[in-house]
Each structure stands twice: as C-alpha cells, then as structure tokens.
Amino acid sequence: MDYPLLNAFLTMFWLFLWILWIFLLVKVITDIFRSQDLGGWGKAGWTLFVIVLPFLGVFVYLVAHGREMSEREMTRAREQEQAIQEYVRSTARVPSQADELGKLAQLRDHGDISDAEFQQAKAKILT
Question: Where does the chain cross the membrane (predicted)?
Fold first, then answer.
C-alpha cells in the first residue's frame, strides 16, 4: 500500500535531521578553529577526523570538548552583551539633573511656566 502522507512526513523528518546534522557539523568545525586550547596540529587533526569520519568525529569531539565548547559560547555571548550595553550607554545619554534644571530655567525665562510650576518641577527633579 502507498501512504503519501506518511511518505511526506518521513521525507520532511529526514530533511530536518539532515539540516540539523549539517548545523551541528558546522558548529563543531567552527568551534575547532575558534578554540584557544588546541594548537595548529590539534586543529588539523580534529578537522581531518571530523571530515573523514563525520559521525564518529563529531561524537568524540562533543564528548571530549563539549563542556569547553559551551563555556566558549557563553563567554562569547557575555562579551557581545557587554559590547551592546556599552554601545547603548555611549549613544543613549541620560540627561543629568543639571540639564533638566537648565531646561526648566529656560521655560521659566521664556514665560512658558510660572515660578510655582518651576519650583514644583525643580523639587521633583532634585528628589
């Protein structure tokens, strides 16, 4: 009997596994070259092992270096987060109390707010 729905499901399942495998292979090869712990010959050996015997090579690499791989990934994520935070701090300047008081004084001088409103806003800024 022919089951077209089952065949479509199995085809999509194998396609998903194949894409997942390629992603994992690229991730491992990228980690090999980013590793500071391995020397040139170590990187060459692991790369050759992963290319010649991919399933066994990836499995052994993940067993041998999985924890270090995740630590490197977490360190890289922390560094990126710090860089983003530093960028945000440098570009989004928070106005200081002096800036706010200067704006209030300008509004009062131009007659846009009264002295009572100025004192109220000034008390709010200084608290």
Answer: 5-24, 44-64
Q: Is the pTM of this model over 0.70?
A: no
- The alpha carbon dihedral of 41, 44, 45, 46 has a sign of positive
Question: Residues 6 or more apart from 37 whose CB is under 8 A from it?
Answer: 68
Q: Where are the domains of the chain?
A: 4-93, 95-127
- pLDDT 10s digits, 61-117: 999 988 999 998 999 999 999 999 989 888 877 777 888 888 888 988 988 888 888
Q: In 3D, which of 26, 94, 16, 17 has the Cα closest to residue 54? A: 26
C-alpha span between 104 and 118 (Å, rounded): 7
Task: State the Cα–Cα distance between residues 127 and 124, nearest whole angstrom.
Answer: 5
- Compute CA distances 106 → 8, 77, 118, whole Å: 71, 45, 10
CA–CA dist 50, 66 (Å, integer): 15
Q: How far apart are alpha carbons 49 and 98 in whole angstroms?
A: 64
